[in-house]
């Protein structure tokens, strides 16, 4: 990502149906797609691109378990040992007592999930976002292909993109 | 694209259900004999916890309690056990039938398309409603004296030693239109009206669903949607009042404003698990070809979400009572947490109905696989059966309640009868709607 000479071919698609077929066509020819940008979520695009399902829920579960453990430890240590406190005449450390641990479970899983998402998608302060084509925020679907990771020549990929339905093909260097 | 499917209730399936029924009857009879032979010795200590309850609520003098113990609760323990178990099973299975109709109504009112191929399953479950209506009335009249403390007339007589001021103040809720302490006109009227309305709406909605198969068009769908919307309003009120009448009034001094919701949540998630279990079994038997893992995913999400919803309601009811610590409210949970068979069911309830469905159905793959749903659904159904056990039994049986062959046998009998009614209703109509306007949407359902 830090290299200054990254060369991309950018295919512009006018319609999400053309895009979905285009993704299949491009991948069938053995071209590796770097990323697709669209102005709105396109149903079935992740499957067409062959993306694996996100593991974010697993991360959330682990963060949640951490929260549960933290809250239980805190409750047991604070109210049972460090400063035993009788509240409302209830027994100290009864198992029905500690239902409040779900608060920290929810908090940690939510914060952890957001943090994980930011780290995984490389979103950080002062980062300049890359734009392959500014029209992907308006009405065009944009398919970026990294030339360095493909064996085919620029001309071949450009032809394949056109055949698969791209309305124009541009070059973009970062 | 859409094949005509017809469920055939094969003799082998009937035979299996009869075997289940026979096993149930056998266990029940053995259970009754065991209860008859052991019950007699304990008769003297029968009213221990009633006394505790009474003292906590502090409504009558100890002498009156003793006298009342001798006078009322006349039936021997084994008979009370049968009555309690009958009522408990009946209440649980009313829920399964009623939720069948409720599920169909929700699908129409929310204009849901995904459920189009499976709606005949809950519709067939609704066929249990008229039968449960008859059972409820019959069991009520036979067992009212043992099940419902409030039916005893001298509780409302200020001259009597058993006079109960709290129940006297509540009496209009049961006896309106009639004589206090006599025949509970208002109560029975409600019972009959509720079952009547539910059955009436079942017939109306079913008529439109079946007419659509023959005539096509969208007019039947619109009519069913209108009827569903009206039914949902009626259901909201009637299911809540039914919960107070049939379950909460077993402990007539105690009250919880969450109770209508609590019963609904328990019925709803048990009903969803039953629908899913029947769908999974039909699919394994080669029916319901258009049901894909996407539809199963939606059913799984329903069970997962409403297991958590049930826990939320359970917790909201428990936490407020636990925290406020007012004797007349906590008595309900003290009976259930401190006494032997109920205490382990109290905790088992949370494990079966929250911990297990929560962990087992958490991932996407689990909700999409028939093998996992076939494990979780029975857990949830059995779990909510225990939930209702702990709502009904402690209030009636006090310290004499138990969980033995009698209870398990009756549950099997009810289960076999319920399945028999559902499956024979299912075999009398096309298994999949033929001209449902949303069938195409459901075939392309993808999540």
Mean pLDDT of chain A: 88
What structural class do the secondary elements of chain B suggest?
Answer: mainly alpha
Strand pairing plus helix content of chain A: what structural class? alpha+beta
Distance between the termini of chain B: 21 Å
Number of contiguous helices of chain B: 17
So what's the overall shape of chain B? globular
State the share of residues found in helices of chain A, binned by percent: 40-55%
* Low-confidence spans of chain B: 41-49, 58-72
State the separation between the terminal residues of chain A, measured CA to CA: 9 Å
Report on this structure.
The complex is a heterodimer of chains A (174) and B (447). With 174 residues, chain A is an alpha+beta fold. Chain A folds into two domains: 7-53 and 131-173, no CATH class; 56-120, no CATH class. Chain A is 43% helix and 13% strand. Chain A is built from five helices and four strands, in the order E-H-E-H-H-H-E-H-E. Chain A has helices spanning 16-28, 45-49, 56-82, 102-120, 154-163; strands at residues 7-13, 35-37, 141-146, 168-173. Chain A is elongated. The relative contact order of chain A is 0.29. The model of chain A has no long low-confidence stretch (mean pLDDT 88). With 447 residues, chain B is mainly alpha-helical. Chain B has one domain. Chain B has helices spanning 11-39, 48-57, 62-71, 77-109, 120-125, 128-147, 165-175, 185-215, 219-246, 259-284, 293-324, 327-338, 340-360, 364-368, 370-397, 405-427, 439-443. In chain B, helix 2 runs antiparallel to helix 12 (327-338) and helix 9 (219-246) crosses helix 10 (259-284). The longest helix of chain B is centred in the N-terminal third of the chain and has 33 residues, at 77-109. Chain B is globular. Chain B starts with 10 loop residues before the first helix and ends with a helix. The model of chain B is unreliable at 41-49 and 58-72 (pLDDT under 50). Classes of the chains: A alpha+beta (174), B mainly alpha (447). Chain A binds chain B through residues 43-44, 53, 57, 61, 88-90, 96, 99, and chain B through 315, 318-319, 322-323, 325, 337, 362-364, 446.
């Amino acid at each position: 990502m830090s290299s200054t000479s990254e060369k991309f071919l950018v295919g512009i698609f006018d319609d999400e149906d053309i895009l979905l077929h285009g993704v299949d066509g491009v991948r069938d020819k053995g071209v590796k797609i770097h990323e697709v940008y669209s102005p709105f979520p396109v149903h079935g695009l992740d499957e067409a691109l062959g993306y694996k399902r996100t593991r974010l829920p697993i991360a959330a579960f682990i963060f949640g378990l951490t929260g549960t453990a933290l809250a239980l430890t805190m409750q047991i240590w604070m109210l049972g040992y460090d400063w035993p406190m009788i509240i409302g005449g209830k027994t100290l450390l009864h198992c029905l007592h500690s239902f409040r641990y779900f608060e920290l479970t929810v908090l940690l899983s939510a914060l952890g999930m957001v943090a994980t998402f930011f780290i995984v998608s490389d979103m950080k302060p002062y980062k300049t976002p890359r734009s392959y084509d500014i029209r992907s925020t308006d009405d065009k679907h944009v398919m970026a292909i990294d030339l360095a990771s493909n064996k085919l020549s620029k001309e071949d990929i450009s032809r394949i993109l056109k055949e698969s339905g791209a309305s124009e093909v541009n070059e973009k260097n970062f | 694209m859409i094949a005509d499917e017809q469920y055939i209730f094969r003799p082998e399936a009937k035979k299996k259900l009869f075997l289940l029924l026979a096993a149930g009857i056998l266990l029940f009879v053995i259970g009754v004999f065991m209860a008859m032979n052991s019950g007699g010795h304990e008769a003297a200590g029968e009213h221990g916890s009633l006394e505790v309850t009474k003292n906590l609520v502090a409504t009558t003098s100890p002498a009156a309690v003793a006298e009342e113990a001798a006078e009322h609760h006349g039936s021997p323990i084994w008979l009370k056990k049968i009555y309690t178990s009958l009522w408990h099973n009946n209440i649980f299975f009313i829920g399964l039938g009623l939720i069948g109709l409720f599920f169909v109504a929700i699908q129409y009112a929310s204009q849901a398309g995904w459920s189009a191929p499976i709606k005949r399953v809950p519709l067939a479950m609704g066929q249990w409603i008229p039968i449960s209506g008859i059972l409820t009335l019959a069991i009520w009249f036979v067992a009212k004296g043992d099940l419902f403390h409030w039916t005893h007339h001298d509780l409302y007589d200020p001259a009597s030693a058993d006079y109960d001021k709290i129940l006297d103040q509540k009496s209009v809720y049961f006896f309106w239109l009639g004589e206090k302490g006599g025949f509970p006109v208002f109560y029975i009227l409600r019972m009959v009206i509720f079952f009547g309305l539910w059955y009436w709406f079942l017939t109306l909605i079913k008529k439109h669903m079946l007419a659509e198969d023959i005539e096509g068009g969208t007019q039947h769908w619109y009519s069913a949607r209108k009827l569903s919307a009206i039914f949902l309003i009626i259901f909201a009120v009637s299911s809540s009042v039914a919960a107070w009448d049939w379950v909460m009034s077993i402990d007539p001094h105690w009250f919880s404003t969450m109770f209508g919701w609590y019963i609904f949540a328990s019925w709803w998630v048990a009903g969803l698990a039953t629908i899913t279990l029947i769908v999974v079994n039909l699919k394994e038997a080669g029916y319901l070809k258009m049901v894909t893992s996407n539809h199963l995913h939606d059913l799984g999400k329903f069970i997962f979400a409403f297991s958590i919803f049930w826990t939320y309601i359970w917790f909201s009811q428990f936490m407020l009572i636990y925290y406020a610590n007012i004797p007349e409210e906590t008595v309900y949970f003290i009976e259930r947490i401190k006494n032997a068979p109920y205490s382990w069911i109290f905790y088992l309830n949370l494990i079966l109905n929250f911990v297990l469905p929560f962990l087992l159905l958490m991932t996407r793959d689990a909700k999409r696989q028939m093998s996992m749903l076939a494990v979780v659904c029975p857990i949830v159904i059995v779990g909510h059966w225990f939930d209702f056990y702990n709502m009904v039994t402690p209030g009636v049986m006090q310290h004499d309640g138990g969980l033995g062959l009698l209870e398990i046998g009756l549950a099997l009998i009810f289960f076999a009868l319920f399945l028999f009614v559902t499956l024979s209703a299912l075999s009398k109509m096309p298994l999949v709607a033929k001209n449902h306007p949303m069938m195409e949407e459901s075939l392309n359902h993808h999540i």
